[in-house]
């Protein structure tokens, strides 16, 4: 073993580089790598894990800009196979965006290159590029202030088309911040907010600045609350679930919304096509002391007795969750949006078939793409004259009244819920529409 591999911060930075490399070269979602008990990340102590996660997250959050910065100092494009690009990107992220001393960022990046057979011949290049970046930090900081470069070009172009240049900029600014930890509590949001030193949002979510592992926070093992973005908590609320109501949650796993419906006392049937994900839902409900029937099936082809209410939180491109999952921007492609939109159409038609006359359907996605939100509902209403929108009322979403569009649908954006403390600002981009069957 190279003695520099024992240098302080080496293991954390190498894990960060591997996390970034996994996303960029192997298409591996960041969460999957973070949860892998066999990964080098899993072997780190808590402090190093936090550092590795912060470096990888910052790198992916600003990837487009960091790639443009690194490219300025290269004569030809990097060979994408080795870890060289990820070493340079994580190094640049530390120099330009994190409070890391130059010698630590540059020195450990060079050590990483030396410890990697493919990158070793380029250790001198790593040193030169990162030293140049450190030297030109001031000019580069202005360069990377341009938010339009944070996400891939195809995604930026869609955003400008859907939300205008200013809207796209506001979304990207919202995505630059590390998100808060949002939790849904069974009861007493104000009391839990006080206990955590956080705040209770008017919609009921308890919001705090994350610190340490979630599982170690008070109330987790007692099943008093679960992690759920403030926007993700809204679709289930729109159903106003109560005891005696028979509700189907058609794309239910891992169960955040099922838990809300079950906690309200409804009789919930949780459907998901993925049996392993449904097992996770069952485990989650068990921790929370809540119950639901489960069915592992394609919800579009389900035949059961009709329901009083249906929640369809459909699989989607997840482009509304980029501030929590910055890898999504680089793992998805424009083709995915078209195929997911087809699946959503099929699932919506299946949901309508399972709805009683007078029944309520809430459709939601955590996407910013109109094809997965507004356009789906427009087309569904054309196909089904017996359905109509039941407009979301301002008093149902206190603090987020401006997220209701002129059709009465909910469209949250990462730029909503501004806060002077960036770590307490924003929420995921969600679309939700409520429909009634006449
Ligand atoms: C956005 S996630 C649901 C999140 C969940 N509602 C929650 O709040 O925890 C979408 C889910 O849809 C499931 N899914 C995808 N296609 C499906 C289908 N045809 N039928 C049923 N479930 C499906 C996926 O396995 C995934 O668990």
UniProtKB/TrEMBL annotation:
The source's domain of life comes to Bacteria
Which InterPro entries does the protein's record reference?
MeTrfase_RsmB-F_NOP2_cat (IPR049560), MeTrfase_RsmB-F_NOP2_dom (IPR001678), NusB-like_sf (IPR035926), NusB_RsmB_TIM44 (IPR006027), RCMT (IPR023267), rRNA_ssu_MeTfrase_B (IPR004573), RsmB/NOL1/NOP2-like_CS (IPR018314), SAM-dependent_MTases_sf (IPR029063)
Any Pfam family hit: Methyltr_RsmB-F
GO molecular function ontology, one term from the record: methyltransferase activity
Do you know which SUPFAM superfamilies this protein is assigned to?
A: NusB-like, S-adenosyl-L-methionine-dependent methyltransferases
* Residues that bind S-adenosyl-L-methionine: 251-257, 272, 313
In its keyword annotation, does this UniProt entry include RNA-binding? yes
Active-site residue list? 366 (nucleophile)
GO terms in the biological process aspect are: methylation
Root EC class? transferase
Q: What is its EC number?
A: 2.1.1.176
UniProt keyword RNA-binding present: yes
Question: Mainly resides where?
Answer: cytoplasm
Q: Which reaction does it catalyse?
A: cytidine(967) in 16S rRNA + S-adenosyl-L-methionine = 5-methylcytidine(967) in 16S rRNA + S-adenosyl-L-homocysteine + H(+)
Mind listing the UniProt keywords for this protein, alphabetically?
Cytoplasm, Methyltransferase, RNA-binding, rRNA processing, S-adenosyl-L-methionine, Transferase
Question: Where does this one sit in the cell?
Answer: Cytoplasm
Domain called SAM-dependent MTase RsmB/NOP-type: residue spans: 143-438
Regarding protein family, the annotation reads: Belongs to the class I-like SAM-binding methyltransferase superfamily. RsmB/NOP family.
This chain's function reads: Specifically methylates the cytosine at position 967 (m5C967) of 16S rRNA.
- Protein name as catalogued: 16S rRNA (cytosine(967)-C(5))-methyltransferase
Species lineage: Bacteria, Pseudomonadati, Pseudomonadota, Alphaproteobacteria, Hyphomicrobiales
